[in-house]
User: What shape does this take?
Amino acid sequence: MSMLSNSTALLGKELRTEFRSRELLTTTGVFILVVVVLFSFTFDPSSAESRRFAASLLWLAFLFAASLMLQPCFLREQNNDTLSALRLSVGDPFAIFAAKLAANTLFLLLTELVMLPVFSILFNVPVLRVFGQLVLVLFLGSLGISIAGTALSAISAQARMRELLLPVLLLPLLAPVLAACTVVTVRLLEPTPFIAWKGVGFLVIFDLVFLTLLWLFGEYLLEE
Amino acid sequence: MTKHALGIAAVVFLLAAAAYGSFFVAPTDVRQGLIYRILFLHVSSAWTGLTAFFICFVANLMYVWRRAPRWDWLGVSAAEVGLAFTTVVLVTGPIWAHPVWGMWWTWDARLTSTFVLWLLYVSYLLLRTLVEEPDRRALFSALFGVFAFLDVPLVFGSIRWWRTQHPQPVVMGEPGSGLDPTMWKVLRFSWLAMLCLMTLLLLARYRLEAMRGDLEIVRREAEAA
Assistant: This one.
């Protein structure tokens, strides 16, 4: 089978498993909601001044949620001892990563899209007029988070203190993504919105660099 | 032993000469006065730290390719030494910034990215303590090291993207930026001295790691027997 058909089959498996229980999506969504509500306890979210921080808060909530959501990415294989079987049945190990990161990007994007209107109402920021551009940033950001996160969760799954280790490894690595996503989103939420193409380009470069790294080194991450 | 002592003596001499150059040879800055002299320690440590991280990156790549333990030993040694120099940068930075900018720390892109760089290598060392099996520890930390190092240009690129308070880069900076020629000479000499110090520390740390590696092999053989 070609790499593409392998990836599609694996992606189908990931999606089926998740949509049967929807555990990951529900828990991540609730987690983001909890973080957003907790933010409102630390300052007055309705003031014009604090609206300027809305984008930063949103991305921080997404990033923290992602660092927890990506945790169980390789845990099922680890617990059931099926990683070797999976590796043997798939010619190119990158197919495994491609499927996992596509599923993670999709889950993350879905949660973000569900949370966006809630966030817009709670923090009084208009998102509808820039919805298309926002989806672009959300997609590029989620892709970057998923690529790095999928790679590192393969590492942390085999370490002690894995729940704590993944955020510690992942969050500093994602600092440039957080910065770029926030800058672009802040511009989109301004009274006269515009898209910061430099930021979008930066995100594309980040995604490409880490995708290439995953393609080059992915097989070593799955060694047993 | 004599070789060892000679090496240490040479590095101490070079560092003393660099300190002399920084205080007495380089002219005083017109605007900043005496405090600017910390530049020779701050900038040379920053460049040396980056050199150590580059060595770590090469060692990590070589480990993934060759799987020889010596590349793992070199990787961890370079990461620790690089971390030490970057810590010097993070400590001398605020000492310089306080009289010049009027504050100890500012969250501008370059300061923040140095901090992120520091955190990445702290995470690298942390990862090593949390993976038990030596081969797996070496491979995983090597891969994380490669990711972390390649993240650096992305963080670094943000210097020019976001306007920052930190002075624009002198090396490969905008036209018109630059140091007085004597300051340049002293800075380059300070860097050379720091590089020698780095090599000395790296060799000592490598020897220690090699001994640990050998000990681990002996222990595993003893357990297997």
Q: What stands out?
A: Residues 172-176 of chain B have pLDDT under 50 and may be disordered. The interface with chain A takes residues 64, 112-113, 116, 119-120, 123, 126-127, 130-132, 136, 139-140, 143-144, 146-148, 150-151, 154-155, 157-158, 161-162 of chain B (CB under 8 Å). The helical segments of chain B are 2-25, 39-66, 69-101, 109-130, 134-161, 181-224.
